[in-house]
Design brief:
By secondary structure, this protein is an alpha/beta fold. The chain folds into two domains: about 5-190 and about 340-350, Glycogen Phosphorylase B (Rossmann fold), CATH 3.40.50.2000; about 195-330, Glycogen Phosphorylase B (Rossmann fold), CATH 3.40.50. Helices cover about 40% and strands about 15% of the residues. Strands 3-2-1-6-7-8-9 form a seven-stranded parallel sheet, sandwiched between helices. Strands 12-11-10-13-14 form a five-stranded parallel sheet, sandwiched between helices. It is globular, with a radius of gyration of 21 Å. It starts with a helix and ends with a helix.
Amino acid sequence: MNPIDKNILYNNKKQRMTDITFFCSPNGMGHITRDFAITQHLDNISTKFFTANVAAQYLKQVGANVEETIDSPKLIVQNGLLKQPTRWLWKFYKYHQECKKISSRIIEQEHPRLVVSDEDYASLVTAQKQNISTVLITDILKTEFTKGFGSIFENLMNRGMHNIIKKCDVVILPMEGNDQENLRYVGPIVRPINNSREELRKKFSFNKKTIVVSVGGTDAGNFLIEKTLNVCDKINDDVDLIIISGPSMKKHYGKNTRDLGFVNNLHEIILASDLIISLAGSSTIAESKTYGTPGIFIPIKNHFEQEDNAKEEGFSYDDINRLDSLIFQKLDEKRNPQKNDGVKKAAEIIENFLS
């Protein structure tokens, strides 16, 4: 049965409320920012988001249609080290079971023509049972958080995830690669910017060399903020430090340092800055490279995805110990913006299911 036949079958039974329901992982900001960017390319198509925590907060600020759901369990990170991954996986499994009940209620309520999931697998299970077309957006096709005995449980979860992925009508991967089966590689998905770098620097009052340190939507990266503060205390007055600390309360750090707390326009701040220091999340790396801003990306140790991302950019967790030399090196690096149309390609793939 093709996607259009599925939609006809389902929508003959129900009165549709929404064209597309987006179920987005609330872990960090990367998922929701790329998903919202995609919706900006979907003309005359009604969309509604379902997520939690800072992801829901972001959507409310940018005026999107969003309903807040339950938050996911947070990774246990101490001083930049991932702890007790097996315990976290068990909590995530129970969270997944609860999310299946929630997505069932939502889909019954919204009667969507298409369900798009950004690493929210519970919604895919529900939609696939009801013969609704499904699109998955993801950076990973397999997790590798655990070793030893814990890996037995993780392997079982990976098998379940693999079966869900196979049943998706299409899987959008925001990276370069060769399409195969239902996998579509579209390249990085980043938010567009309408202002020039000079206009943004004036808007944000970036008058000196400007370093931005961002740790996403959780407190897992606090170790990186603290280390950067210590290093930047030794840098002369010709450099300003901008901290994006996320949803935690903003702090006053003193001379040449501003903490902006939670922002919904980090992409603009990255373009306006001279250097971005961040955890090794794929979305921040993609925005840095697209806008041409030099970056330093320090992964959470033992977090397989972040370590892989960082390695690809030439970094590792141990680089936290040579942050001072890296900062001086990167501040002298030339900007090298890259063109990509991943957001447009992703939107076109999704739009095809509704034509």
